[in-house]
Amino acid sequence: MNIHIPTPLRTYTAGAETVSVPGATVAEVFSNLTTEYPELKQQLFSNDGKLRSFVNVYLNDEDLRYLPEKEATTVAQADELTIIPSIAGGADRMAECVCCSCCSLL
Amino acid sequence: MLHIDYANYEALRAHGEETYPHECCGVLLGKSDAKGNHVKQIVRAGNTRTDSAHNRYNIAPQELVKIQRQARGLDIVGFYHSHPDHPAQWSATDFAEAHWMGCSYVITAVAKGKAEVTNSFLLTGSSEEDKRFVDQAIEIDVKAAGAGVSAEEETELKGQA
Ligand SMILES: [Zn+2]
Fold it and tell me: What DSSP designation does B6 have?
């Protein structure tokens, strides 16, 4: 099945936007993906083997986290996986900034 | 270096003025090469953080998937958001929540509803463990838009911010 790789991870797929790996379940596909592109493993998974919390995975239009069988979900050749790291942030108005001087400007 | 044309630069700053006093956010589409990230198009995103939108932003992953699919040959090269009444510097939360290595994180300070300084920070490093933000100069391509501000002036202004 095809897996869409986000820009920052294409360094580890020789620049490929989309890679194709076999597998009957999402877990198998991930296992084959990280066998073929070993450097992706550390990017996607923490040391305990769980998907990193900021890594979102979509099976077609469904968030993997909300699929009842999660990684055990069976996949067909025509399905597509999209890996998309999260985007968030904020001004931390109440917290102390790590930048050197901006808090003093408030 | 972040390369962006004047129209897109002004549009992302105007977005922050429109959503003030809430944060705005959006995606920078384009191409990256040895010279840096080149923005060809900006895409406004809805801020899904309705609980504290004045100091938090979040782009729904589903929306990002859609933006990436509709990019038509362009790549996601960065993101922008605004800091209402707060300096155009990345915060601890911005850093903790930044995961797109090689992408530009553009922040515009919006003071009392008016866009002020816009800064860009390049997320570098090879993993969560060694990532860091590096100040990134912004080069505004004014030739395409025919506007009267020179890129050098803008870059200098940025340097003093
Ligand atoms: Zn921020």
Answer: H
pLDDT tens-digit map of B123-133: 999 988 899 99
* Distance to chain B for A21, nearest Cα, Å: 20
ipTM for the complex?
Answer: 0.82
Residue B100 has its nearest CB partner, among A7, A61, A93, at A7
CA of B69 to the centre of ligand 1 (A): 26
Question: Does residue A86 sit at the B interface (CB-CB below 8 Å)?
Answer: yes
Which residue type, as a one-letter code, is found at position B149? V
Torsion of CA B38, B43, B44, B49, to 10 degrees: -80
- Centre of ligand 1 from the C-alpha of residue A14, in Å: 31
**Chain B residue closest in CA terms to A98:** B92
**Contact partners, residue B54, CB within 8 Å, separation at least 6:** A93, B21, B22, B23, B84
Q: State how far the Cα of B154 lies from the Cα of B159, in Å rounded to an integer.
A: 9
pLDDT of residue B56: 77
Give chain B positions within 8 Å (CB) of A60.
none
| Three-state secondary structure call for residue B90 | coil
Quick: pLDDT tens for A38-77.
Answer: 999 999 999 899 999 999 999 999 999 999 999 999 999 9
B127 Cα–ligand 1 center, Å: 21
Average pLDDT over residues A15-33: 96
* B2-158 CATH: 3.40.140.10
On whether the CB atoms of residues B60 and B48 are closer than 8 A, the answer is yes
CATH of domain A2-105: 3.10.20.30
Using DSSP's 3-state secondary structure scheme, residue A97 falls into coil
Contact: B87, A105; criterion CB under 8 Å: yes
Domain chopping of chain B, boundaries: 2-158
Q: Which helix (H) or strand (E) holds A28?
A: helix A26-36
